[in-house]
Amino acid sequence: MTSTTRVSVSDGRPVDDLGRTIRRRHTIFWLSGLSLGLVLTIVLAVGVGAVSVPPSTVSRILGHHLLGAPAEMDWTLAQDSIIWQVRLPRVLLGAVVGAALAVCGVALQAMVRNMLADPYLLGVTSGASTGAAGAILFGFAAGLGENALSASAFLGALGASVVVFLVARAGGRITSLRLLLAGVAVGYALYAATGFLIFASGSAEGSRSVLFWLLGSLGLARWGLPLALVLVIVCLTVAMLIVWGRRLDALSVGDETAHALGISPTGFRVRLLVVVSLCVGAVVAASGGIGFVGLVIPHVARRFVGAAHSRAVPVAALLGAVFLVWADVVARVLLEPRELPIGIITALVGAPFLLLLVRRFQAAGSG
Fold first, then answer.
1. Domain 99-354 listed as CATH 1.20.140.10
2. Going by C-beta distance under 8 Å and a sequence separation of 6 or more, which residues neighbour residue 10?
3. For residues 12 and 32, what is the distance between their CA atoms, to the nearest angstrom?
4. What average pLDDT does range 279-285 have in this prediction?
């Protein structure tokens, strides 16, 4: 009896049927566990804050609103309002933003073939920050009312993406190195532009607001169209990256491998850039600049389920969602009643991880 054997694009090694079965079960185990963990995280996180609500009460409130479950209302109207109107939208936005940053980090690391790449790399976050600073300090897009900040940030992110694309394309075909250099250059230029807007405004209160937004916050989360749009965009992005899993595998190995499999590296990078830019622009417009999620979580996901992107992308999405929700909980309660920018918490976790990652690369290089 003979067994079929194929070559894995992600690592170039033969994978037999038994190996595929083991990896599939391993992936299902992690996906199931992380999905359950995300549900528990949401229930627990919405009950934590200045006014604590027991998980049992939270479950009844959520069941009452989501499922119309008949229940004796043994909770107060204040608890109902806090859970449903304030905390649940915030926790859901945190989960969506965390998932988006994580999967975009996975895609960018494959696109530029650099394990230290993250959504900050392409200047998208800097563009959103410049747009948001203009809205806060000078009233850009004021005609959009309460959505002016998000709209300005999103337009800034899209503008930065277009500039990066044009700069990377100016030298001919788009390569990993050109994207990397264009993103870094545009990001620094927009960072300088944001600093100029802060000093030009002369507003101390506006400057504090911009600084808080630059470090990330989920405080703007509310039920409505913005949250729904971000949710739809992120879900579509995750689905597309899963479908493109084998293409991402090929691109991460090298352009020659991609060509051998009938994939145009330049065309695929352009599609990836568009998808990632739209997704990052949407989430940064809703939450501000939150660092390290797109850098740290992809490495953890690969350690759990391997390098194949069809497995790493959904696992990274769930890991990113759980991580950012708990980071937001810490940001809310650490200095209560004051709230810390969530980017401070993610940096405190991400910076030591980055140092460990650098040591690992050094050890691998010396070995």
1. no
2. 249, 252, 253, 306, 307, 308, 309
3. 28
4. 87
Q: Work out the burial of residue 248: count CB atoms within 10 Å of its CB; fewer than 13 is exposed, 13-18 middle, 19 or more buried.
A: buried
Please tell me the number of Cα atoms within 13 Å of 200 on its side-chain side: 11
| Res 258: pLDDT | 86
Looking at residue 89, what is its pLDDT? 95
Spatial separation of the C-alpha atoms in residues 350 and 345, rounded to whole Å:
9
Do 265 and 259 touch, CB atoms closer than 8 A? Answer: yes
Per-residue pLDDT at 17 exceeds 80: no
Q: What are phi and psi of 15, to 5 degrees?
A: -130, 120
Measured CA to CA in angstroms, residue 168 lies from 162, 184, 313, 341 at distances of: 10, 11, 26, 33
Give the pLDDT band (50/70/90) at residue 300: very high
Strand pairing class (5-7; 14-16): antiparallel
pLDDT beyond 90 at 118? no
As a whole number of Å, the end-to-end CA separation of the chain is: 40
At 7 the three-state DSSP class reads strand
Q: For residue 15, give the DSSP letter.
A: E
- In the chain, what are the domain boundaries? 99-354
pLDDT at residue number 326: 96
Q: Which two tokens stand for residue 253?
A: 């190995």
Name the β-bridge partners of 7.
14
| Contact between residue 245 and residue 103 where contact means Cβ atoms under 8 Å apart | no
**Which two tokens mark 295?**
């850098």
214 contacts 129 by C-beta, under 8 angstroms: yes
| Separation of CA 354 from chain center | 17
Between the CA of residue 248 and those of 20, 65, 241, 252, 309, what are the distances in Å?
19, 40, 8, 6, 7
**By mean pLDDT, which of 35-39, 183-187, 198-202 is the weakest?**
198-202
